[in-house]
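Everyone, carefully examine this protein record:
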Amino acid sequence: MCDFKSSDSWVILSPLEQSIKRKVEAIGTPLRDWDINIYRGVLTGFNEAYIIDSNKREEILANCTSPEEKKRTAELIRPILRGRDIKRYGYDWANLWLIYVPWHFPLHKDPTIQGASAKAEETFKSQYPIIYQHLSKYKTQLAARNKAETGIRYEWYAMQRWGANYSDDFFKPKIVWASVGDIEYSLIPDSFLLLDTNYFFAIKSTKELLAILNSKLLYWWIAMEDTPIGGGGAYRHYKYNLEKISIPSLSRELVQELDSLVNQIIDRQKRGECTSDLENTINNHIYKIYNLSPSEIEYIENREE
């Protein structure tokens, strides 16, 4: 029997696999019906101009001429994560920073500004002279990014897409995964920004969703839905596949237990310690949640990721 994953791909599942798939999809509410909005990170249009290393950041800040200028310039330069930096539960930061410049910045909250604004550029040049000088080195490339937009819809020095409708969510704790790569979900602090090679959604407090998504069972389900790339175990992770995942309502006690386990995993990872026992405990909880039989659990446990 064929289970179709999309209009142009399909997979043949054994009776055991069909049973597991039905159980995962039968319990709970699809993620798209939760109070969650899934977004992509920012698109600069020319990373060479906006992404800098720590040495360049220090150089920029050292050239500021007043404490006030240095403070507001530092607030504009945020740590950035790429798709390759995302790991299961955690992340590997490559000491890279993003110069976060929205359209019409620093007048981006002025609703009267429509299109590229000379006033916004002059204000930007005055308040952030070192950043302006840095970006000016790339003006030719930045102005050529999208001639139908640059200089018409936004200024040459602004990023191409900055998440205008959801920028507040960038500055919250969030669950993140790479649009292409292994099937891994990470908890990212509010201080980090993300490139458009990542998807994310903001979370409120507890981390039970992170535990469920990183479980062996959900890894298997998502691998059935996503598109494999080459033979190295990488996948293309479509937003709409994740939105289909059925997440059950959990008891307060179980939410607290999963939250505690995730916190312990993250703490151990920071110390370079093994987390397999904690992840096994999470996997056992998830098997119970989705009512897997012993033979189904054995299949998932013995399957190579």
